[in-house]
Every structure is written in C-alpha cells, then in structure tokens.
Design brief:
single chain; about 400 residues; alpha/beta; Rossmann fold; Alpha-Beta Plaits; 3 domains; 13 helices; about 35% helix
C-alpha cells in the first residue's frame, strides 16, 4: 500500500522521516494526493483534490484551513496540540519579562543615543529612570485557557514565585492532572480580569472568543496590567486596547500578532509570530502530525483532529473499513445491513461522533469488494468510505 503526500510548506525532515519512503511519495507538487501536510499556507482559496483523505497541520492553529468545508466532505483535519507548547511557554515568559522591565523600549532608547562614550554613559544614567520596572515574584498572573500551553505557562510562572489564577471552563481531565495544585481557579473571566496584574491568553480564535477581551473587561483590569497575547489576533478588541494603553491602565501589551493600529505604540512590543519558531518545535509538530497522518491512512485511526472525534481501534484482522458520515439516526444500522448483505462478518467495530459528524471503524474477516464500497457510499449521509 502506497500513499502520496502533498506539502504546502517546508516540513521538518525530522517529521517526514515518520513517513517511510518505501510507502510514501512526498512532494510540494504531486497529483492526486492522499493527504496534505502544511504549516501556515492559506488553503481557503485552494481547490482541494477529491483524492485527499486527510489534512495535517504541523502546529496547533487551523485558521488557515477550511475546516467546515472539510467536515462536509468527511475529511479529518489533524493538528499537533502541545508539540510547540514549550517553545510558546518560553516566549510568554520572555514577554512577561519584557513587559515588566521595559526591555524593548530601553533597547530602542540606547540605539537612539549619539556622542562619544562619555556622553553615552551620561545619557544612559540620566535616561534609565524612565524604564524603571517591576519584578515578577508575588505578582498575580491570570491565565485564560488551560490547554497544553496555558498549563505550561501557569506551572512555570508558579515556579518563579508568581501567584497564578487560571480560567478554563472546558479544561480536560488530562490537562487538569498536569496543572500544579498551586494554581487557583477563577470562577469567571471577569473575576480573573479584576485580579490579574499580568494576563496571558491561550485560547483559539472562534466566534465565542472574538473580542473576548473587550472594553468592559479591559476596564475591569488593575491599573498597570501587562497584557500578553501569544494566542491569536482578534481575541482582543484593539480599539478598546488602544484607549487603555493611551490612558496608562494597560502598562504594556506584548503580542505575537502585530497590527498597524498598535505596532508602533510606545507601550506595545509586537513580535513577528515567533511562538513556535524554534527548531525543536518545528520538529515536534511535524513528527506528531506525520505520525498521525500515517496512522490514519494505514489504519483509519484518528488522533488530534479539530473536526472529527478521536477514534482508535487496534487492528484485529487484515480488512478494515473507515466510514465518515453525518451524525444522524440509523447510520450504524444501515452500515451493518449493507455489510451483512455482502456476507461480511464484523469482527470488531468502533463508532464515535463529534457534533454533526460521526466516524466508524469496522474490522471484517474477509476482503472488501468494490461493490460493497459502492453500496456503502450510496447510503444517504455517508460522506466517504475507505478500505484498508
């Protein structure tokens, strides 16, 4: 069994090694790909071939992928949550230090000084008082979103002597186990905003989080709060933030997502989306998504999908069906009847659903014919069918 993988960006060789070349043809230009691997390439205006069975994003965010359209086609979109968590955590800690000690503004001040060393030293001593900072121990950090990155940031800040409060009404059991017991729980986002001296955001950009930090919540924050956004552009109302920066209520805004409105503001440190830009993070993300793409193509298993349920069924026999369908009543009954009509005995089965999409893995004890695949595909609501 061989597969074709289309890459839309440079993908780490370390990750691509998870796809053995005996079975995988990988290229940036390739016809009839079985899967697409990418990082930041915008796919929204791209014509995605009918041959594509899965899309893998070597990173966490998937705003550059038409996820809803892929769901309607029965195509899982896989990402690599947590693979870049350490890289982003380190940058957030650096951002807190930059915001607390005015490091970028101080550096810019020194770069603008003229004269000989005597004049330079005199200007440094005279000017340093305007960059007087604060220290982190004892300060309160609010963490919005306790996924892989948020948990690491919270734990690291706690180890630095900060008081840490977290807010995430949808925290998973897995992440809760990873979170230090010293992290306090906020009952609401408004409560967290009122208490935090530093506030860091780690939520995806969806309809529910657009302008999550608006004028009202900014107005509730403590005077001199340092705001950090290493999540996504659009989570903060920039017009409201600009007013709070001008008034001094927000001491500093450190972001990985520059905008023309704020990038030149004296209280803003804007970075060029450096969050996952380390060799280690790129390797980790590529390795995770490549391995999961391989498991999906070869075994039908789904891990770390943003639009499909997690579905992992150990192989029991050599013949497997993977069926994506609309999450509507009697789909399993119709699938089972179709298999029975084809004299196929079900050895093992797994059915999972997520929202409007359902996914079924079926192991049978004899080979699956093309006519059976055609009959399954003809069931109303079936999005696609694969045999492997």
């Amino acid at each position: 069994m061989s597969f074709k993988i289309l890459t839309l960006n440079n993908i780490s060789v370390f990750g691509l090694k998870r796809l053995p070349r005996d079975n995988y043809e990988i290229a940036s230009e390739i016809g009839h790909p079985d899967a697409i691997l990418l990082r930041s390439q915008n796919m929204h205006d791209m014509e995605i071939p009918d041959s594509v069975r899965a899309i893998g994003r070597a990173g966490a965010g998937v705003n550059n992928i038409p996820v809803e359209a892929m769901s309607k086609r029965g195509i899982p979109v896989l990402n690599a949550p947590g693979a870049n968590a350490n890289a982003v955590k380190e940058l957030v800690i650096a951002g807190m230090l930059m915001g607390a000690r005015n490091l970028c503004q101080a550096w810019s001040y020194v770069q603008g000084l003229d004269g000989d060393d005597t004049a330079l030293h005199k200007a440094v001593e005279a000017g340093k008082k305007q960059f007087r900072g604060i220290e982190l121990p004892g300060r309160t950090l609010g963490v919005v979103g306790l996924g892989a990155i948020g948990v690491e940031v919270a734990n690291a800040a706690l180890s630095m002597g900060m008081e840490v409060i977290g807010y995430d009404p949808k925290i998973t059991v897995h992440r809760a186990w990873q979170l230090s017991s010293g992290v306090e729980q906020a009952d609401s986002l408004d409560q967290l905003c009122r208490q935090a001296e530093f506030l860091t955001l780690h939520v995806p950009l969806v309809d529910q989080t657009r302008n999550l930090i608006d004028a009202d919540r900014l107005g509730q924050m403590r005077e001199g709060v340092v705001l950090l956004n290493f999540a996504r552009n659009g989570i903060i109302d920039e017009d409201a933030l600009n007013e709070m920066l001008n008034s001094g209520r927000v001491r500093m805004y450190v972001t990985d997502f520059p905008s023309n409105k704020l990038k030149s503001h004296e209280r803003v440190t804007a970075l060029p989306h450096l969050g996952a830009s380390t060799g280690e993070a790129e390797d980790n993300c590529a390795a995770m998504v490549a391995q999961n793409i391989r498991d999906f193509l070869e075994n039908g298993n789904i891990r770390h999908s943003v639009n499909f349920p997690t579905a992992i069924l150990p192989r029991t026999k050599g013949y497997r069906l993977a069926i994506a369908n609309a999450n509507v009543p009697n789909m399993l009954g119709q699938i089972s009847t179709c298999l029975a009509d084809s004299s196929l005995n079900i050895v093992d089965m797994l059915n999972k659903s997520r929202g409007e999409v359902a996914y079924t893995l079926v192991d049978v004890d004899t080979a699956i014919s093309e006519s059976t695949l055609a009959n399954l595909s003809a069931i109303d609501g079936v999005l696609n069918v694969r045999a492997m």
